[in-house]
Structure formats: C-alpha cells, structure tokens
Predict the 3D structure of the following.
Amino acid sequence: MDSKYRSNAPAPSVADTWTELRGLLERRSIELNAEVHSYPSPIARCDDQLPKLLEQRARVVRLLKAADELGGGPGAASVESDWLERLQGFLSGPDATSADEDAEIELRSRLSAALAQALRAADSKE
C-alpha cells in the first residue's frame, strides 16, 4: 500500500505542501502560456474559449506573484507564525475560490489542513 494512504503516516508539512502548490502553479503557468501561444487564429469575435483561457492565465500569474511575495516558506526547524498568518491570507484570497483544477483544489485542501495543525501547534507553544 502507498505510504500516503496509511493512516499512521505523518501529515505532510506546511513547507512541503507549499512547495508542491507553488510547483503546480508554475507548471500550470507554463501550460497556459503554451496554450495561449498556440491558440488558433484568426480569433472570431464570438470565441468564448480564449477569454476564459486568458483569465485562467491571469489568475495563475496573480497567484504566482502573491506566492513570490510570500516567500519560499519557513525552514523545517521552525515555523514562523507571521509567515503562517500570511499563508492563511493567501489561501483565503480572492483567487482561492476560483480554482478549477482538481490537483490545485486538493493541494489547497491539504495545505489548509497542515496550516491549521501548525497554527494550533504554534498557539500551544505560546
């Protein structure tokens, strides 16, 4: 059985899951840029797929910019509460509810769970 399905397996850390989400967003950005670049022309006025594609790309660019501003994450040894709070803001931002890819939704869910656990641990240390 795969270790990620074992109930006694340790939960992934906030930093690991954050790195996974950033990697997914970076790959998605590359995919969307390639899709826009290879979009067939001429583009008809009634085309409704290109605007959606452009909005998806703009959303991923906004998320990557916000992720860059947030930084790479805390070190494994210590989880800074300020960074955790900023991460919570990232996860609840306006682009959070418009995720349309299952992998992103799943990673956001895992990251939220890991974040909640880290915040509880940080609160108990204070």
Summary: The first helix runs from residue 14 to 37.
